[in-house]
User: What shape does this take?
Amino acid sequence: MKALTLATMLLAAAVVQPVLPLILGNPWMVPPLLTAVVAYYALLDSRGWAMAAALLAGCLLDALGRAPLGGSAFILLCGAGGIHAVRAQLYRNSWLTQALLGCGLAMLYALFSALLLWITGNRTLPFRMLARVPLQGVAGLLVTPPVCALARHLDQALGCRIEQGET
Amino acid sequence: MRQSGFSNWAWWALLCLALWHLPPRCSQRVRGVTREALAPLHAGVTALGSRLRESFLVLRGWGGVVQENRRLAEEIAYLRGRVRHLESFQRENLALRRQLQFLDASEGRLLPAEVIGREISGWWDALRIARGSQDGLQRNMAVITPDGLAGKVEAVQAHTAEVMLLSDPSLRISARISRTGAFGIVRGTGAPLHGRPLFRMDFIDANTTVVPGDEVVTSGLGTLYTRGLFIGHVERVAHDASGLYQTATLVPGADLGDLTYVFLVMGRRVLAAQELQPDDQERP
Assistant: This one.
């Protein structure tokens, strides 16, 4: 059942993420939904599920985008591993924690994917385009709590065990 | 416990590394399968979202709809008249060409395509369209809108394709200023936060007079685009640091930030992959 929740969340995020900037008519409005799903699993689930979510989300980002396959997955694995390592010290069920971690993960992903593109020589990035990094952070701040609430609701509806996060 | 956690993470990281080193053919296949599988969902969500957006816009601008309808009706009547007028010119032109034994200069038909998504990471100005190799699409075909050139086909799957937009800094095309015939290279500067993206036209001869408002079109000298496709208008001009060339800032004709439909120029000479350089850039 947990696999079903994970698959549903990743699929929904992968469908909405590239379509939303089109509907809003602004190419900058890319909501980091896939990183929000990774943040949810890293914060509230076991290491195995967190890593699986990071790997699959990264593969979807790379397959639907133009980055080398496995690159985004590696960045998200690092982020998910970091969140998992420090989560014992956090109020995991608080929306503020989720928002801040979502912001951090989205910025980390945006920054490292830009670096990755630059290092692999896939493209030159004008300095102005790096404004995308803090913007992705703001977008992560806004979208992560609703995504976490939705995933939690889906987990509960399907009868999956959710770890209690309060410390 | 911490050590076991790290080794667990290391295994996952190794898996990523293995994915990174998949043979290009294999990784292309993975990309193709994923894109094709998600394309119907992308198309459905885009259609739903577009309807919601249109409904919102109608509700917001309810008072202006009647005037807008009247204006559009007048425009349609005017354009119909213009089309009839141009058709008579075309017939005359064809007859004269036949008499002079010129070849038909038409560059093939246009295929409309619905835009179903943007590039997911946001680092490229690229679109996904709901047309693929089954519709006759090939890599490097020109993509246009009624307002001007939009970009080129970058990758093709069976039912979908990726279009690299002109606003992306990685794309460069050979262009010409219509009034003077001066050549240059046009490249995008990335999508701005709001408004239309601007282009830059580099390497314009310093002795040519370029003024704001000049029309810029494709030169046809490169390998990808037919001659005379409208790109945009000159907004301002400056001499570059060397003093040998001028650089112009262009306002593109097409609104590349807000596209719902594009047209593919079919039947234009499309070079085989081995004939093109790896980055497929046009040269003057």
